[in-house]
Amino acid sequence: MTTAQQAQQQVSEDVHSYAEPTKAVARHLDLDIAVNFDSKTISGTASYNIDNLAKGNEIIFDTRGLQIEKVYLGDNREETTFRLGETDKVLGQPLYVTIKPDTKRVTIQYKTSPDAAALQWLNPQQTAGKKYPFLFTQSQAILARTWIPIQDSPGIRITYNAKVQVPKELMAVMSAENPMQKNATGVYNFEMKQQIPSYLMALSVGDMVFREVGPQTGIYAEPATIEAAAYEFAEMDKMLVAAEKIYGKYRWDRYDLLVLPPSFPFGGMENPRLTFVTPTVLAKDRSLTSLIAHELAHSWSGNLVTNATWNDFWLNEGFTVYFERRIMEELYGKPYADMLAVLGYQDLTNTIEELGADSEDTRLKLDLEGRDPDEGLTDIAYEKGNLFLRHIEMAVGRERFDEFVNKYFNTFAFQSTDTDKFLDFLRKELIKGDEELAEKINIEGWVFSPGLPENHVKPTSERFAQVEETYKAWKNGKPAAQLNTKDWSSHEWLHFIRMLPEQMSQQQMQDLDKAFNFTNSGNSEVLAAWFIHAINNNYRTADKALETFLTNVGRRKFLVPIYKALAATPEGKKKALAIYAKARPNYHAVSTVTLDEMLK
Ligand SMILES: [Zn+2]
């Protein structure tokens, strides 16, 4: 076989990228860019070391909304020709660059558009400090191409160096080795030595400071947020130790967090070496830190062993949820992790109900051709994926399962893998021809069939059993103030609120709110769950808090169910549209794409 044929065999076809990596593929990126807050643009050059495997005369990159100014070949930068293909709303445009059989280096001079979907430009009012503007990127799933011309497929890995020029009063950080300190020049240099897929390219610029947590861990945040963040995430070093104990050495040197302003659309984004995290987990009691365990777990599942296409997303997220709960169990014990498992199972059954038990989108292996991958990525990948792995663990025992997972991470380290490759590995390394075991594991039922296999084991929680007792007492008429809720964590509260009946009287709502002050909860999970009841029961006392929440927080997981509940009645929809008009500038494109569609 030629090298090209070998490469062809290894690469899974990605319907969300125009790149043809079996012909010509990028291996390393040197990014040299300037960040301009006035024009809301990034401009500069992306220089790639490439392998022209097929020795042809073309290499293809993904772009979306980029202005491509010039393209050069070689170290001496000889100008070459290029053309942009037709625009697809989701995929953008392929950039065809003319190369020679022996071309090793391609340099693209470009500029982003002010509405680049990956970039959110915040004005000072939208930050915690209110003094300086802020920028952050969100590249997953296929938005890296809106700020860098890149072969934007999770099946392709590159190393990178970057030189980033920012306003002198601000600091830049990336998914790379980071500066830890502001410097007077506004020029920051980065190096990412490990190969990563494009969706892990990340940049943030703002007024931020660094605080060390442990020898290998630390936090970047705005000065106004750093104290709260340092308290909340004080245990991140312990998490890293716990994770290494389960699945082996952390391979990315440092593990730091960047706490973003509240418009960040996700809970966290596992950008390597520097997880981006929402400030909505700053609950002041460390009760929502499983999110950090989740992002940390991605350092193995996702960042180290990566889904080759977005149809295999469950390999990233299912493993990560499984690993996240193992870390939480290691740190806080099984009863604690069991609560997380039950809440996750509730999310899963809700998602299946919403999508329909026969929906193709409830299979682990997805088919997202022709769609925005972001739309197809639901709780199925996370929670059904996790449940499948728990199911295998129960079938073979934890010790054997851990040995298998360790071997999986080591075998595919710094590579991309797809569902078929994983299943081959599972058959070869764990099932090993044992037909009884194969039947028990039921790959077909879990991976390729919709819904959940009938004999799946539902997670249970002792601590929630007590919550259920308490709930029953309330339902039978005991006043809320007299309920036994001593030492409840936010997970118990969340379970309690989720159990509340859809229809409640004003008196019941007031009784609960007076006793537990849900409307003014500092816990975003509790608050978001309570707002759903407030909306369904027209509980006006929560109106102001609801509006404040929606105009401040941009986390899609909270926004979607709340707006949906509002939009269920004509009056509520009016309210939703009025709030949305005001709040929309505070949301990232990842959230507005979903909400525009829902509220149109
Ligand atoms: Zn994740």
TrEMBL record:
Annotated source species: Pontibacter populi
Keywords for the protein's UniProt record, in alphabetical order: Cytoplasm, Hydrolase, Metal-binding, Metalloprotease, Protease, Zinc
Full protein name: Aminopeptidase N
Enzyme Commission number: 3.4.11.2
UniProt xrefs under CDD domains: M1_LTA4H
Cofactor(s) needed for function: Zn(2+)
Family named by the database record: Belongs to the peptidase M1 family.
Catalytic activity reported: Release of an N-terminal amino acid, Xaa-|-Yaa- from a peptide, amide or arylamide. Xaa is preferably Ala, but may be most amino acids including Pro (slow action). When a terminal hydrophobic residue is followed by a prolyl residue, the two may be released as an intact Xaa-Pro dipeptide
Entry's localization field: Cytoplasm
Keyword field contains Zinc: yes
Key word Repressor present: no
Start and end residues of each Peptidase M1 leukotriene A4 hydrolase/aminopeptidase C-terminal domain: 462-599
